Amino acid sequence: MENNKSCCFFGHREVTHNIRPKLTAILGKLIVDEGVTEFYVGHQGQFDSMVITAPRFR
């Protein structure tokens, strides 16, 4: 049985872009340290777009 970990991001309509480095670091830790393989993201606001366009980790 496969054991996937998932994470949800739903944010605000408007955000300041100075959160991008911290968001990128958090995404990296979730993927590398916590083994998260599935992300669910909203699609309405700037925060959601920021999560979607964050650098991809392999």
Give a structural overview:
The protein has one domain. 2% of the residues are buried. Strands 1-2 form a two-stranded parallel sheet. The protein has 58 residues and is of the alpha+beta class. The protein is globular. It has helices at residues 20-32, 46-52; strands at residues 5-9, 36-41. Helix content is 34%, strand content 19%. It contains two helices and two strands.
In short:
With 58 residues, this protein is of the alpha+beta class.
Q: Point out poorly predicted stretches.
A: none
User: What are the secondary-structure elements, in order, as H or E?
Assistant: EHEH
Helix content: 25-40%
**Strand arrangement in the largest pleated sheet:** 1-2
Q: Output the radius of gyration.
A: 12 Å
Throw out a few tags for this protein.
34% helix, globular, two-stranded parallel ribbon, 2 helices, 58 residues, single chain, alpha+beta
SSE blueprint:
Elements: E1 5-9, H1 20-32, E2 36-41, H2 46-52
Parallel strand pairs: 1-2
